[in-house]
Design goal:
- By secondary structure, the protein is α/β, with parallel strands linked by helices.
- 32% of the residues lie in helices and 25% in strands.
Length: 677
């Protein structure tokens, strides 16, 4: 069966027979693949003209809800995806790493979208900036969705996680996605997209799929489109310098394979918990997905005196790993994705073995269970001991399979220098119980790494591992690793949006951002804002209360009642010597408490709870005899789609009798959407 693409609102069957795709385990044909007949320009236009407007109509919370629904859909179909994943050579554990990992990214971004983004279509970046002396000229950075398509070109090793980790932040940002999977495992990606499209959950045009060659796709990219690539450094370089990409300044991000390292600390001698953790982690990273991970450990950098001990410990564990058909429960490592990939790994191994010795494994022979070692793309794990740390090949040649090279170092500085010779990596790890060594190495190698894991016996039981990118942390790296960033929580959403500095009056800026700005009009219609439901409340609704005299008795009582007897509140002589106060001052939290007593409407009503204060600053000291007035203004309203309440952010400003600001902060409350007294 030829793989179908989904473009221009319908499923498309290729116009020719296409190339065969083989089962990595049995060598049997799974499908054929071709993109012949697809109009690439029309496909991009469909995403921009149909998918983009539909997504931009939705708020961040509405998009987040759809991501959650898609995650739930795929979770219900995991068993089918696991079975198909096995044909790519993956064990069940490998499949969960890929399938469940991809689902986890969707759910993580769904959660972050609802918790960290507004229920709106515009996102503010940073605080408002005062640009004029009278407060009527302000500046605010905002993020808005780019009016293009997020084109993703993926690698073969993670056919589920790869497309989903790119889809999630783009979708949440309001940008449609075009998925181009690597051919070898495209049948698994195609099934994922098929499940999503046929569910009808997503707006038309927000997700498209091209199986096969990209053809002239890149020639039709515009300044609003984005191009994300995962794969080899050489291909990333070709895409980065594509004439259209360069001419239109297409936003480009590459996540390239890299020579990731793991450094063992000198304190982690054989017999220590950290030594055992290191050996186990090394074997895990060599064998999960048969080493076909862009985050796998390619260089094991260990104290020179421990090289043989690490080789022995890792080899003992590798000897217990059964290679073969993932359908057999005894199998711990499956096949590479294709016979072509096995040939590529063997070519790279020749270069590495020219400057080292295999201490475990034979590149040309492997015993397999439940399969034919020649028809399937099987290869033995190979652990190499470098003849010299100074040899170029271990720092330049990557065998993208179950291969790692042991390299000895002399001291901390030497370890850092060796790590840096990888010329940029996605991830590195340091396994040590010595915090000083960990600090020296982390700060030394950080400029060459996108992510660093420090592993010790304290965090080992909770650690997600060297090779596991997390949706909340950046995935990417400098130099050879591609120079790009993916994921990173909301950072990944920002990548798909345009940041714009907007200069305007407070009134206009409030209208643009849907958030009250200092200097904008306040509304006091005689109804206390706390008596209004979310449906009735408006941005700018306000109440002013006070003045309230602060007495010495207030300060003394608050100190005794709370136990906060800091000298500035209780010892007149000592307080007088304080150069900031020159006498007794009220507690900052007393000021906030008095303000709450002034602005609150205490009767039962639509305000359900106060759940926090943000950006609290005590601006000028308050002394006994001062009078306080508070102005509370509705700053932002965030309804919750599946709840009977929403969140309201209030601007609170406490002033003294001379007009100076005593305290400034945001009050956060939960308010009912509707209210009947």
């Amino acid at each position: 069966m030829p793989l179908r693409s989904y473009v221009n609102g319908s499923w498309f069957e290729p116009a020719d027979q296409g190339a065969p795709l083989l089962d990595a385990v049995t060598g049997d044909q799974v499908a054929t693949i071709s993109s012949a007949g697809i109009g690439m320009q029309a496909t991009l236009r469909h995403g921009r003209d149909v998918g983009g407007p539909a997504l931009r109509e939705l708020t961040f919370h509405e998009r987040a809800a759809l991501l959650k629904a898609v995650g739930g859909l795929l979770r219900e179909n995991r068993d089918e995806l696991y079975a198909l994943s096995a044909r790519t050579g993956s064990t069940l554990f490998d499949s969960t790493f890929d399938v469940d990992g991809g689902i986890g990214v969707l759910l993580s971004y769904a959660s972050k979208g609802r918790r960290e983004l507004p229920n709106d279509t515009v996102l503010l970046d940073g605080p408002v900036e005062a640009l004029g002396k009278r407060g009527q000229f302000l500046g605010q950075h905002i993020y808005t969705p780019r009016h293009g398509v997020a084109v993703q070109v993926n690698a073969f090793n993670f056919p589920v996680w790869g497309p989903l980790e790119k889809l999630a932040p783009a979708f949440l940002a309001g940008v449609p996605t075009l998925v181009k999977p690597a051919s070898a495992t495209a049948y698994l990606t195609a099934r994922v997209v098929e499940l999503i499209i046929e569910s009808g959950l997503l707006p038309e045009g927000s997700l498209q799929l091209i199986c096969g060659s990209v053809g002239d796709l890149f020639d039709h990219l515009t300044d609003q489109d984005l191009l994300s690539f995962t794969g080899s450094a050489s291909t990333a370089q070709q895409l980065r310098t594509n004439p259209t990409v360069v001419a239109n300044s297409v936003r480009f991000s590459a996540e390239a394979d890299s020579l990731n390292c793991s450094i063992l600390g000198p304190d982690a001698a054989p017999g220590t918990p950290e030594f055992d953790l290191y050996a186990t982690q090394l074997v895990t990273e060599m064998t999960v997905k048969a080493g076909q991970k862009c985050t796998a450990i390619r260089r094991a950098i260990v104290p020179a005196e421990y090289v043989d001990a690490v080789a022995e410990a890792a080899s003992a564990q590798l000897a217990t790993v059964v290679v073969g058909n993932p359908a057999d429960e005894s199998v711990g490592m499956g096949a590479l994705a294709s016979l072509e990939q096995r040939d590529e790994v063997r070519r790279s191994l020749k270069a590495l073995l020219s400057v080292g010795t295999a201490v475990f494994g034979d590149p040309e022979h492997v015993d397999v269970v439940g399969a034919d070692a020649q028809r399937g793309a099987f290869i033995s794990p190979v652990l190499i001991k470098a003849d010299s740390a100074d040899s170029a090949e271990p720092h330049e040649v990557e065998a993208f399979g179950p291969v790692s090279t042991l390299i000895g170092y002399r001291d901390t500085r030497h370890a850092v220098e060796l790590a840096a010779r990888g010329q940029g990596s996605l991830v590195g790890s340091v396994v040590t119980g010595d915090s000083d060594f960990a600090r020296d190495v982390v700060l030394g190698v950080a400029p060459w790494h996108g992510r660093l894991l420090v592993l010790d016996q304290d965090d080992a039981t909770e650690s997600t591992g060297h090779g596991s990118p997390l949706p909340t942390l950046v995935h990417g790296g400098p130099g050879r690793a591609g120079g790009g960033e993916e994921l990173g929580g909301i950072r990944g959403v920002h990548h798909h949006m345009q940041r714009t500095a907007v200069q305007a009056s407070p009134r206009v800026l409030t209208a643009i951002t849907n958030r009250w700005m200092p200097g904008s009009a306040r509304t006091d219609d005689g109804v206390h804002p706390f008596r209004k439901s979310l449906a009735e409340l408006k941005i700018g609704d306000s109440v002013t209360a006070g003045p309230r005299l602060v007495t010495q008795e207030d300060v003394a009582h608050f100190a005794e009642f709370t136990g906060d007897t800091f000298y500035a509140h209780t010892d007149a002589e000592a307080a007088a010597r304080n150069p900031l106060f020159g006498g007794i001052v009220a507690h900052g939290y007393l000021v906030v408490s008095i303000a709450a007593g002034l602005f609150v409407s205490p009767e039962y009503g639509p305000v359900l709870a106060n759940y926090g204060i943000d950006d609290l600053r005590f601006v000028t000291p308050v002394k006994p005899g001062d009078e306080l007035t508070v102005t509370l203004t509705c700053k932002a309203i965030t309804p919750r789609g599946d709840s009977a309440h929403g969140e309201v952010r209030w601007d609170a400003q406490v002033t003294k009798q001379d007009g100076s600001v005593a305290a400034q902060y945001d009050v956060l409350t939960m308010v009912a959407k509707e209210w009947k007294a």
